[in-house]
Amino acid sequence: MAVAFPISSPIELFNPVPASVGIDPNWRRRPKTTYEKPDHVPPIPTISDNDSEELDFNRKERDFEIAYHALADRRGANATPAGRAASRKIWREAGTKAVEWLIDKFKKEQHPETIIGIAETLTALEDIALPVVLTELEGDEPKPEYAALVESLAWMKLPQQSPSRLRIVSIINRYLASPHLDCQVAAVQLTRILDDDQARQFLDRAKKSANQRLHEEIEDLLNERFEE
Amino acid sequence: MFRCLVKWLRGGGFCSQQQFYWFLRIAKTRRWQPDDETGKFPTAEEALQDLKLRPEERGLSLYRLHREDEADELACIYSLTLRDNPGHFEYVLFPDSVLSKDDRIVHAPVEEHLRFLSERHYEIPAPAEEQLLRLAERIRNSPNKQVGRVRQKQLVDFAIQHGFLEREEFHNRIGKKWRELILKKKKFEK
User: Fold this and answer.
1) Does the N terminus or the C terminus of chain A have fewer Cβ atoms within 10 A?
2) Distance from CA of A116 to the nearest CA of B (A)
3) Residue B4 is inside which H or E element, if any?
4) What are phi and psi of B59, to 5 degrees?
5) Is the minimum CB–CB distance between B138 and chain A shorter than 8 Å?
6) Where are the alpha helices (DSSP H) in chain A?
7) Cα-Cα-Cα-Cα dihedral of B115, B169, B147, B66, to 10°?
8) Do B28 and A112 touch (CB under 8 A)?
9) What is residue A136's DSSP assignment?
10) A32 in helix, strand or coil?
């Protein structure tokens, strides 16, 4: 049986448009445009120190925002401790400003993993973050929302004769006296930064009036530190 | 009778029982259970805070578990490898029946994570806030949900028990502070 194939349309040949089409043949002969000098030339604006500071601040703010989103992202380079340490470089380089910025964000943050990310970053910034965090905690009533901030101090390494030691003791006292359990737990955790004798005093004192959850925390700490 | 038996066997026999899963979401326990001091139960809006996506996230991150007791292992591996400061691991666990048809869930392995975590990582892609609020409500009202807190001490004990420091896959993944805690505890135990 014969099969009818559709007849294809003839192939269109490649027919490019010549380069000269559409171009004015006298284009070389046209008179050149002249510009008259205006009477008044406005001065070129100079960048003052204030403007440059503002630009610098905006750039930093943008960099902080980018780095902030990576704080809780545990993927890519941030999947290992070394990678996370490297990605904290930006905060370390920005110094106190970065710590203040992070604390401001911390106050509004609700995401549990981001809160942990901020606390870890503050711990890693140690000597840069310590005075700023202490001032922040001293300037406000003990709040359960600040528990992660208090605990970020707990993992810092404090020199034996550090002048901050007294301030930390005062914060522990205030947070232990708070009616909120989260504050008390944070205070108990903060005793990690103290030497053995001082920490034991606090823990023994807190144990007397502790409820079940706090008691458990204290027992765990005593067990970890003194194997009791 | 025989026909029924054949039909049952063709259907998979005992294996035909539908496998169900648990989903774990890293959360704050106080947003899912009554307050210790006041006894007040958190609202769905409060619970929603734990389900909201961070700006760079594209889906709601969940871990799918075969058994409830996998939660401890997950807590331990997650904390030791992905968190630098030792601390408790808090989560909310719910059965898959809590998810609705709208909550399309997809496997989202994270190559850089340990296999245990990567294999269990799932996501609900681009959920709307309204959808998350409904999910928070359903989890909150589910009688089978479990709100858990694995204490830091338990995490260290688990790591020692399972020899995490000696296992190659944990090499360079366990943070310095965790490592110190584990070594200290092991020293005490000797």
Assistant:
1) N
2) 8
3) helix B2-10
4) -150, 165
5) no
6) 49-70, 81-87, 89-94, 96-108, 112-138, 147-154, 164-176, 181-190, 196-208, 212-226
7) 40
8) yes
9) H
10) coil
3-state secondary structure B102-166: CCCCEECCCCCCCHHHHHHEEEEECCCHHHHHHHHHHHHHCCCCEEEEECHHHHHHHHHHCCHHH
Q: Calculate how close chain A gets to B63, using CA atoms only, in Å.
A: 15
Contact flag B30-A84 (C-beta cutoff 8 Å): no
ipTM score here? 0.87
CA nearest to B60, candidates B4, B113, B136: B136
Q: Find the helix or strand (DSSP H, E) in which B72 lies.
A: helix B70-82
One pLDDT digit (tens) per residue for chain B, 190 residues: 566 566 555 555 555 556 799 999 999 999 999 987 788 999 999 999 999 999 889 999 999 999 999 999 999 999 999 999 999 999 999 999 999 988 999 999 999 999 999 999 999 999 999 999 999 999 999 999 999 999 999 999 999 999 999 999 998 999 999 999 999 999 888 7
The structure tokens listed for A197 are: 């004798």
pLDDT band at A227 (very low <50, low <70, confident <90, very high): confident
Our CA-based measurement puts residue B165 at a distance from the nearest CA of chain A, in whole angstroms, of: 15
Residue B153 sits at φ, ψ, to 5 deg, of -60, -40
Residue A180 contacts residue A214 (beta carbons within 8 Å) = no
Beta-carbon separation of B172 and A152 below 8 A:
no
Q: Which residue has the tokens 């765990």?
A: A220
Do the chains contact at B54 and A74, CB–CB below 8 Å? no
Which residues share a beta bridge with A158? none
Cα B130 to Cα B52, B126, B134, distances in angstroms: 11, 12, 6
Both structure tokens of B78: 């997650």
| Torsion B32-B38-B43-B45 (CA) sign | negative
Q: What is the pLDDT of residues A157-172, one digit of tens each?
A: 888 788 899 999 999 9
Question: Which residue of B84, B91, B178 is the best one to mutate when testing the A interface, meaning the one whose CB has the most A CBs within 10 A?
Answer: B84
Å between A110 CA and nearest CA of chain B: 6
Judged by a CB distance cut-off of 8 A, whether residue B190 touches chain A is: no
Q: What does the DSSP assignment read for A165-202?
A: HHHHHHHHHHHHSSS-HHHHHHHHHHGGGS-HHHHHHH
